[in-house]
Every structure is written in C-alpha cells, then in structure tokens.
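Form 7-S
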Amino acid sequence: MSLTQAAERAALCKLVDYVDENPEARIPKLMDTVDRYVPADVFPTQRAAFRHAIDSRSNWYELMLRVFHLNPEVRRRLIKCFLVDANILAWPVQEEARDKHRCNIPWAILLDPTSACNLRCTGCWAAEYGHALNLSYEDICSIIDQGRELGVHVYIYTGGEPLVRKDDLIRICEKYPDCAFLCFTNATLIDEAFCQEMIRVANFVPAISAEGNEHTTDARRGEGTYAKIERAMDLLREHDLPFGISCCWTRANADAVATEENMDWMIEKGALFCWYFHFMPVGRGASAELMPTPEQRERMYRFVRQMRGEKPLFTLDFQNDGEYVGGCIAGGRRYLHINAAGDVEPCVFIHYANANIHEVSLLDALRSPLFMKYYEAQPFNTNHLRPCPMLENPDDLPKMVAETGAHCTDLVEQESPEQLREKTAPAAAAWAPVAERLWADEADPDHAKRLNWREGQAETDVTRLARVGRDLTTQAEPRL
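Output:
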C-alpha cells in the first residue's frame, strides 16, 4: 500500500469511527466526506443510491441503522473491511489490474475449503462429493495472498459445509484483518463457542441456507434442519452478530419463498441480507424438474423488487439482477470459484476448467483459455434477464468448452456441457419470451436505464468491449 493509499485509508477509517459514535446524527454527513476523499468515477451509481436512501430515510436507511446495532467491534471492523478495504480502495486497484493484464479480475473469490458436508440436500452436487477433498490452510492463504495483490478483499466460502473447517477459517480471519469473509453454511455447526470466535475476529459473516418455511426447508435439507437453523439465528442475534440468508429457490419451494411472511421472518430473526439463487440442474444426478417455471421466475422477479422498496433487508436475486451489474459476473469479471480439488472454475455452477490452483498462479488461471473466452464474450446477452451462458443461453457453454479444451471438474461423475444443455435448453426457450416482455416494458422504473448499454459496465468493461470489437447496440449476443 502506497503512502497516499495509507493516508486515504486512515482518513476513511477515522470517518467510520466518527459515524459509529452517533450514527443517526452523523450518517447524513457520511456521503459528503466520502465525496471529498473518493474520486467521482468510483461507484457513482452506488453512491447516489446511498445518498438517496439517507436523504429519504427509506427502508434502506433503516437497514443502515440495523447495521449500527451490531456488536460494536464487529460492526466497525466489517464496515472498514467491506466499505474501505474491499470497495473504495480495492476497486481502483482491480480496475488497474484489469487494464494492465487484459483479463478479468474479480471483486470476490469463492472457494471450497472442503468437499465434506454433514447434510445431503436434494439437488446439491456437493452431497455426492464425499469427505476426501480439502484446500489446505496454506492453499487458502496462498489464494488470498495472490488475490490481495490484485485488489481482492472479499472471500466467500462455499462447499461442502465450510464450517467443518471452522478452526482454520477463524485462523484465516485473524491473519487477514483487512479482508471480509462470508460463508455459505447450513448453520448446524454454529454454537456458542463459534459465536465468541466471530466476535473475536470480527470479519466473518455467515449466510445461512434456508428455503422458505419449515416444510420446504426440511424437505430439501432433512428433517429437523429448520429447527437447527432457527437456533443458530437466535444465537447470532443474541450476540448482535451479522448474518444473512442464502435461499436456493426451486419449483418445489418458490411459492413458499416469495412471500412477505418469509421475508419478515428473516428480518425478525436478525438477518441483514438474503441472496436468492435460482436452482441450477448441475451434475448428472440433478433433475431439471426442480427448475422454477417461467411463471414462478417472473413472480420472484416482481416480488424481490417490490420488497426492496419496503423492507430493511438487502436482497440479491442472482438470476434476475443482471442489469445492475452489466450481465454475467462469472469468469472472474466480478467473481470466480475454486473447488476443493483446486480447479479454478468461472462460476460455482459451471463445472469446467483449464486451470488448477495447485499448478498455476491465480493470475494465470484468470488468463486461462476458458476464462479468456468469458472475457471476450461477456455479456452473453444484452437482455440482462438472460445473462447466463448455461441457463438462458445454453448453446454458449458447449461452444466455449469445446473451443478452449476445458474439462469437466465434477468430482464424482463427468457431465458434458451437451448433457447439461439438454436440461437447460427447454427452460431457456420457455423463459426467453417472458424475459423479452419484461425487458421491453416501458412502465418498468428501470426501462430508461436499459436503453443505455453502459449501465452496469465498469470503465474496463467498456474498453474491453472496444478491444474485442463488440458494439452492444448492434450485437446483442457474442459471436462464439
């Protein structure tokens, strides 16, 4: 870190401490100070949204105040990690690296500490992986060291059940206090001792898997799981610790998930965020029958957007929010995934790779053939309600895998991209007319933004598109 960056960090951290002393009185001054220290081209849209939330005292302002009710040490550390280290200071470093290396550089890295899991959830490929594979403590530290060099300060654990490795994960939090660690977890291993460790390190946030009500959650995750989830949430709330919800929604649970009652339950339990994931039929044993119908997906699209205007809960809809980030964010554009065997995959749902972290550097993995194909082809569709090369544009993934010589990374049974396409193509065809209707809806509050192809694109995205000769106003899909 340069002297200038160190001075900027010190000033921003001092600002966090200042606001923390009296948030209700000082939050309104927050954006004025940020604008003074941070260049105008760093997150302009997000800064405008924050300012609007503060000025209007909206439900988002209420969410900000909820953050300031967390454990004092935890909230200060996390705000500094996430706001200062992982975004304000990190983004310019990431953009510089993207321009220098002419490849995607992620904002976050997802990694599987272990393939082991104590549950066997319906439709989850990890349930078949067994307990044999792990990224060692040294492996994970190496990934983080390399990531930090590129400006990455957000690391997200997937699995398997990451908390099988809870001791190592806490050690890593200690070693990297300038990083934020989020963990997708079934919550069954969260106990009093672990809550105390979370308080001590102050930079670890669980995202607890829950799918609607007790019936739908236990139907997928096993009898009694919902009760264990509630106990974990109660424990975290009693200690004023941050956590959120990870919800995989399927044809079977969509009606239970997309309810105000379910969202109110999350807020009452203390959750600060919910990440909604459309079920992906990945793995030879995964059934396409669990994929939501177009009607269910449209309902989820409308439900999440309505609730965003009403509830103090941060929500991300990973299949319907593409327009806010310029389409697909995989392939290292904003994130990548490293499985427990070390395979560096474009996405947690795309089990194909050219590179393994045990054999190449993180940067070389980002420059591997499959990742470079993502770099050249994104966005896969200018209708960002159809962002994915596997789910909504199912012809794209088989072409990219064939052209780059990538291999299947499934740890149990190989699935070719053509076999995966057979499962996703019917759903893609059914969703396409719905997505086109929604995208063209002039009554939608976001319609005007959709006419601007730069919306959701970083400056390096714009230069990348120019470099590969892609005009999004005339070429809706990449030439693969």
